[in-house]
Description:
Oligomer: single chain
Strand content: 5-15%
Helix content: 40-55%
Order of helices and strands: HEHEHHH
Number of helices: 5
Shape: globular
Strand order of the largest sheet: 1-2
Mean pLDDT: 89
Amino acid sequence: MIRTARGNREGFLEVLHHLLKKLQGYVIFLYADRAPWHRGEDVEFFLQSHTEIHLEYLPPYQPALNPQERIWRQSRYEVTKNVWFDNLDSLYTMFNKRICRWSKKKVQQLCIIT
């Protein structure tokens, strides 16, 4: 998991750099929604410079095709239901701990991967 300082285009580019570093030598197929920070000149330039990443965009208004939505819904339920967090760092820590305890099978079921 990578934590970026900002949830914007620069943060997305940090994630792409992180993927390249962690998956060096692999061809990466990445599917993203059409959020403005997943698109733009900076992203296009990065992708032209790093041909080992193939970025495809999901059709608009199709949350059912975006497995992270199911992961987010489940993790939010498990972590935040009836819980108060003093700050974002403690919230982040709890999300990280919870998700790291999930089995591969649970993630596959949430993402509907057989």
